[in-house]
Design goal:
Blueprint: E1 10-14, H1 21-30, E2 35-37, E3 41-42, E4 57-58, H2 60-69, E5 73-80, E6 83-88, H3 89-97, E7 101-106, H4 108-118, E8 122-128, H5 132-142, H6 147-160, E9 169-172, H7 176-193
Parallel strand pairs: 1-7, 1-8, 2-7, 3-4, 8-9
Antiparallel strand pairs: 3-6, 5-6
The structure holds adenosine-5'-diphosphate and guanosine-5'-monophosphate.
Length: 194
């Protein structure tokens, strides 16, 4: 993971899978905050509703390993067994050169790694589900993973929930509308003061 030329700010949203970070990030992208989404690379196949280059750069396992070898990532991780995800340096350069703020939707370890790299130019937000049961319900309700994959994500979530205090802000996603409004306020405050 090599040096990064920092010419802008970024907002990191991390949470256990199913907590609602993608939903909140989509809301923020629609608000007038000058944010642009960092499209991660991953090795898994697209879900039916996902588009290559918009939701992720779907590289496949071989393509992902090649990108690691090329030094294309500022951070990458094997989030689940043989399932790689990573943040492309080219995404930050693209967004910062357009004068916008980068917004990330990454897992908890990835979020803390980006915060470590970007420091004060980054605001790291942990999205907390109101309870573990609510998280489980949301993950099942999304109907995007098999039962086996849901069990893996829930086991990982238990560990991830213990990392909340390492983030700059903890945002409880109970009522979606309220959480989105609070997210807007948090981001706005960071952009006007930091
Ligand atoms: P993540 O990106 O953290 O994995 P998603 O944004 O995909 O989570 O949300 C998981 C599921 O929970 C989705 O089906 C989403 O519509 C739903 N969801 C998000 N926020 C809430 C909320 N506050 N109350 C109820 N359901 C929610
Ligand atoms: P999903 O397969 O549900 O889209 O994502 C699985 C997990 O990978 C989520 O927690 C998501 O936030 C995380 N993720 C997505 N992009 C990145 C990335 O670039 N780096 C890291 N470390 N995690 C990521």
């Amino acid at each position: 993971m090599s040096e990064l030329q920092q010419t802008g700010k970024c907002i990191i949203f991390s949470a256990p899978s199913g907590a609602g970070k993608t939903t909140i990030v989509h809301h923020l992208l629609g608000a007038d905050l000058g944010l642009a989404f960092s499209v991660s690379a991953c090795s898994r196949d697209p879900r039916p509703n996902e588009t290559d280059g918009k939701d992720y750069h779907f590289l496949g396992v071989e393509g992902f390993k090649q990108a690691i070898a090329n030094g294309d990532f500022i951070e990458w991780e094997e989030v689940y067994a043989n399932n790689f995800y990573g943040t492309l340096r080219s995404e930050l350069e693209r967004i910062w050169s357009a004068g916008k703020t980068v917004i990330f939707d990454v897992d908890v370890v990835g979020g803390l790694n980006i915060k470590r790299i970007v420091g004060d130019n980054a605001l790291a937000v942990f999205v907390q589900p109101p309870s573990f049961e609510a998280l489980e319900e949301r993950l099942r309700g999304r109907s995007t993973e098999s039962e086996e994959k849901i069990a893996i994500r829930l086991a990982k979530a238990k560990q991830e929930l213990t990392s909340a205090s390492q983030f700059d802000v903890v945002l409880v996603n109970d009522q979606l509308e309220r959480a989105c409004a609070e997210a807007e306020e948090i981001v706005h405050q960071f952009l006007v003061t930091a």
